Amino acid sequence: MRPTRFLALPSTSFSPATSSSPSAEKTIGRTKPYLTDSALIERCRSNALTVEDALDLFDAAVAADPKPSIYAINLLLGAIAGMKHYPIVISLCNKLNVLSGIQPNIHTYSIVINSCCRMSSVNLGFGFLGGLLKRSFSPRTAIFNSLINGLGADKRVAEAAMLFDKMSLMGCEPNVVSCNALIKGLCNTGSTALALELHQKMAMMGESCMPDVITYNTIIHHLCKEGHVSYACKLLDEMIRVGVKPDVRTYNSIIYGHSTLGHWKEAVGILKEMMHWHLSPDVVTFSMLMDSFSKCDKTAEAHKLLDLMKERGEKPDVIPYTILVRGYCQEGHLADARRVFDSMLAKGPAPSSHTYSVLINGCVKNQKLDEAIELFNKMQREGVKPDIITYSTILDGLCHLGKIEDVRGLLDEMMSQGIHPDVVTYTSIMCGFCRLGKWKEAHQLLYEMIEQQIHLDAVTFTALIDAICKEGMVQEAHGLLEVMICRGIEPDIVTYNTLMDGYCVVGKLNDAVRVFDLMVSKGYEPDAFTYNILIDSYCKSGKIDDALSLFNAMPHKGVKHTVIIYNAMLAGLYRVGRVAEAEKLCGKMLAAGICPSLHTYNIILDGLCKNQYIDEAMKLFQGVLSSNVNLDIVCFNTMIDGFIKAGRFKAAKNIFNTIPTKDLKPDAITFNIMVNGLMKEGLFDEATNLLLHMEKSGCPANSTTFNTGLLEKEEI
């Protein structure tokens, strides 16, 4: 039972009854107190008011005589709603309905209906609306706004739109808040196009419905989330043109949109525009930009943004620091990641469980498991509790090193801490066991998952099938597919593609075709990846006509050709010497608007050189060099090797000398090709000098260098 807290009321709230007080009523041995309106209003407006205080005030109010006004009671209910104790608001309002002396008014109903909607009980809100109408009150626009908001939050947007349309019939004209509520609901359910239609109509609905910053922010935010950043930028321009001033949230949404698409330069441009309008970027702005930089392997630039943030007086939280740790780890700069992490330990903010997990993952991916385990132990000493992601990361690292006993021990520790492995954890471990050839342990874990009633899905089985296929055990993988079907888990197209690819890798093309036929019989339409697997395998098996037949069938099946599929076909045609057909296919690719990739150029140059079309290869090579395409060292190696084998060593040497001018460095393959060429030309001194240069450039000679060059010439 909740005790009465008289300290919640100022001492002036109660007037003691005496024999000379005519307003005092005699009760059992004492008089009934009264609570003045001014005292109640003063307490409601106090920043120190707690929910316990509010409940005591309500009890005192209903017990007082005379009763406080409904205005004061509404202030009290509003204060409780402001603390987000919505069920209490509803309970107290129900009490008012059965009390005499304090009658709810339209504002009371507005507060309670809003509370219902905010606690996702919009149907209860409509119940109070019915009570309001029974009392002959006319609902206000604010009440409809609350209900539209509630319906939108409940994803009942069609009902929200109907209520919006009925407002005028019930004597309430929609305002900008009504429109914004409906726009928010439409956007949250993926109907951004309808939200845009409503936005366009708002200006014609009267002065009270003119779009404001909330209207624009809501639509811009969802457009950016859906990847329609260019349209969001047009809305930003419109916003400025009609005199609605963008705020930090507007620009943050557009920066977020550019960042998710990897457009870091555009994101920086928006930051500059934001500062041009004298809007100060906040921690969220900087964090999104840092995230964009780090995802584009520009973590050092992201680090400069952190420094700028601190210079501007912003206090970075743990998120931007964690972004830097993740970025440096992804780029392989583990020492830089560790320095950022250590600065957090020394100066704050304290690393979170997620920060530890990111750094531990970086250590595991960079083959530094000892450091990962040391960090894992450290976080526990620091009082940071590892989560399922932390445990899964360490377990994955242990699997890669083949430490099966340690995996089992850590699994037991994890469960003793009340953290139960999920389907992702088990799948990761099982794949690790498969890579190590520990099939017995992998199957044991599979049955353990079944016993613990962990939901096995297509993703789990597909991951296992993929791991087993990569070990060359395709028949076992096919057996797992049958187990999957027996358990009522329907394989998806990724599962079938994985098994097909496994058969193709081990040269069992006929079995791959049988899996393809099974997939089609199950009603699955082959995708581009399916066709690529078979076309590539046909080409590598020399069955070019079969590959072309599949290639030509793709458009009729509604599947578009990709640059990867063109690459497979081109490589196959050049491999069997059908150069003219390869050239035609290349022209068809360009006509279809598909841009050649760097790998495409490598395939064409290699195909031309191996088929003795050296001059054609040189013409293409020079044309590409003069364009905006940045060729890699593989292309140069292909050309040098082709010219040496064609007996044109001087031209090969000229290409070799061009490499530094293209900001490239020769690799071991480049040097091996050149050394072999020099040996064949009898230029032993030059070969020796090149070997010395090779050592100085940090690219030491390997077994191929000696086998193909020096030993062939008996230069022991």
UniProtKB/TrEMBL annotation:
NCBIfam families for this protein: PPR (TIGR00756)
InterPro entries associated with the record: PPR_rpt, TPR-like_helical_dom_sf
Taxonomic source organism: Elaeis guineensis var. tenera (Oil palm)
Record family assignment: Belongs to the PPR family. P subfamily.
Keyword line: Repeat
Source superkingdom: Eukaryota
One protein family per Pfam: PPR_2
Spans of repeat PPR: 105-139, 140-174, 175-209, 212-246, 247-281, 282-316, 317-351, 352-386, 387-421, 422-456, 457-491, 492-526, 527-561, 562-596, 597-631, 632-666, 667-701
Protein name: Protein Rf1, mitochondrial-like
